[in-house]
What does this fold into?
Amino acid sequence: MFRLIGPTGIAIQDTARGGGGSFYPLRMSEFVNTMVATATGAGGRDKGITTGEPAAARRRTWAEVHEEAARAAGALVAGGTAPGEAIAVLAADPAAIAPAVQAVWLAGGSATMLHQPTARTDLAEWAGDTIRVLSMIGAKLVLLGSPFDALAGVLDEHGIAYRKLDELDGEPLARPVEVDEDATALLQLTSGSTADPKAVRITHANLMSNADAMRQAAALDTSVDVMISWLPLFHDMGMVGFLTVPMLFGIELVKVTPVDFLARPTLWPDLISRYRGTITAAPNFAYAIAARRMSTVDDDDAFDLSTMRLALNGAEPIDPASVRAFTDAGARFGLRPECVMCAYGMAEATLAVAFAPVFTGLAVDVVDAEQLEAGHRAVPVPEDTPGARAFPLLGPPVPGLEIQVADERGVVLGERQVGQLRLRGEAVTPGYLTVDGPLATQDAEGWLDTGDEGYVVDGQVVVCGRRKDVIIMGGRNIYPTDIERAATAVEGVRAGNAVAVRLDAGTKRERFAVVVESRSADDEEVAAGLRKEISSRVVDAVGLRPYSVVVLKPGSLPKTPSGKLRRSAAASLVTA
It folds into this structure.
């Protein structure tokens, strides 16, 4: 609908009225400029998004997505949407979400993907949480898409304005609404409690900087790359990495939903095979699930994973054993272990913080456990050293970002000294929106405290764990991931569903418990055996015995809307 003329003049041709149109000098953010140029150029005509798998696949070019977005943007502006307005989106189908968020940007607004209710969600509670979020971000409008358009009545009851996406079709917007680089493009809800929400404010400059940094660090090739994803679009890795980036640069994308993946995990390698996928990404737990499912497939020709060059593992602690299980299970289908890319990211940096070097596979740093826990130093030891800790190397910071390690007093630490990871750069958010108002994220020098503890070695980042989750016993810093990996190694514990819970934090009698899920939780004899074996494995791993081990049924552990385990909330499941 819009055609860019000139590489830097940013002149847009209005073709909505037919004929040659009129040219307008236009001041746009580089992000909107690039998105429009891609959609109206060769990339927009040749590349696109496929949705609807596995039931009814449908492909649209990015140019077609843009044409739909221009009509939706026209309807938004005609309906009174003002520049800078926050607009929330609640939909499940990526086919509807892609033009919806682009329409918001064309209309000069900021987009917020609302957390989605599930089959077990109390709708009254969800509505209350949603009202808090909408009030916090100052949104006056919700864009509703299937299947959540059925919730229109709930929004009506609470006086929340909405428009249905399948009815958002107006006269194509003549030209994008002008915004500057500091304007908000995305309000990314964090993974905390929905009752006490917080949104990361991502500007147009943040978004463009981080997207371009990922393009460089991942060596994206728009001519050959095919991205495959089932990640939720209300999570930063799904929204930014696997919708915004391919739409921005014109990369082929196959997009399904988390429900599709969870219903049939082998759909993931199946899509990679059929669409000749080259890039995918997921949290660690998903690779563990995929490994288990692929290992049960009898047919060696069931999948062809030989085209994969990047399988990014991020969004939660990376377990080297799970990575190796995935590459081992995929080897007979042509998967090369070098395609694994360990990464570190957070919404406060828009998405990407550090990427391991392309096509180098999993690399770990093996360190002395006692020096790490008591001396806060990562002293390298041979891999076969008893009790050693192995941490994945997460690569150097992506272009435009820098990382430093500091102690509690703010003193900058040297290589292999463990401390607070701090971040600075073009992609770092200027602040949060909270229920109590805006909250700055950077100090006077522009540094953001990530809340993570870690160190740097040979320019690569290593994350040991979240500072608030570290268990302190006998002067030692025990990282919950070490405990959780030991627990999930026990047969019968669900992959990715073990939590180390800090008890009596900050007291002389600080303790920890382990809470796991198992399909055998209702069988007391089996559960008792699990508790004993888990306790034994944990003692072997960290030299300390848990105060208690709790075995629960599947679906019992508290998780964030994006699926991350909530350690602090799990403490309520432990009987004192």
